[in-house]
Amino acid sequence: MVSQISNLEVDTAQAVEELIEDNSSHQEVIETVISSLDQNDTAMVSHTDEGSLWKFQYGSVEVFVQLTGESEEDLLTVWSSLLQLPAKDEPGLMRRLLEMNWSGTFETCFSIHDNKVMVSSQRTVADMYPGEISRIITLVANIADDNDEDLKEEFGAS
Q1: Phi, psi torsion values for 142, nearest 5 degrees
Q2: What pTM value is reported for the model?
Q3: Long-range contacts of range 8-14, CB-CB < 8 Å, 24 or more positions apart?
Q4: Contacts of 49 (CB under 8 A, 6+ apart)
Q5: pLDDT, tens only, 53-69
Q6: Where are the alpha helices (DSSP H) in 1-158?
Q7: pLDDT for the residue numbered 54
Q8: Any idea what the Cα angle at residue 9 is, between residues 4 and 69, rounded to 5°?
């Protein structure tokens, strides 16, 4: 899994660097990264006063990318839902998620939100460069896609 993520991350980062100049907005970078990962043209975007929200299909998961704005205090949040709760053997599931959080999640983490197991990453956009945006989106998409089916098979609905 780690080598797959590394290879895809390098390919995506190279594409981003080739397509984007240093003065591009975070929004433009996000759209370039999503277009490189979205193989089935499923991407959708919503722009509001509170920011922008993108959704795209990556493998067997939907990935969401939210950008609250372009100022240094604004946030980039990327997440994907893996498993609906309640689940079979929730103590075993929680242990597995905590163990996976220890290694192999890089800048992402597993969590629970809205009764769903999620993988996510969030940071302010201050001093964020295009490669970081690419890495965060790619990591969330890959980790979600690599783990959703196994988690559903082992811990699916109770």
Answers
A1: -70, -45
A2: 0.86
A3: 8/138, 8/142, 9/134, 9/135, 9/138, 9/139, 12/36, 12/37, 12/134, 12/138, 13/131, 13/134, 13/135, 13/138
A4: none
A5: 999 999 999 999 999 99
A6: 2-19, 26-37, 90-102, 130-155
A7: 98
A8: 140
Among candidate residues 51, 103, 57, the one with its CA nearest the CA of residue 77: 51
Q: C-alpha 56: how far from its chain's center?
A: 10
Q: Please, is 70 exposed, middle or buried when counting C-beta atoms within 10 Å of its C-beta (0-12, 13-18, 19+)?
A: exposed
Task: Return the C-alpha torsion angle 67, 106, 87, 90, nearest 10.
Answer: -130
Amino acid at the residue 102: W
pLDDT tens track for 120-153: 999 999 999 999 999 999 999 999 999 999 999 9
Q: Which residues pair with 77 in a beta bridge?
A: 66, 122
Which residues, at least 6 apart from 57, have a Cβ–Cβ distance to it below 8 Å? 38, 40, 42, 63
For helices 26-37 and 2-19, angle between their N-to-C axes, nearest 10 degrees: 130
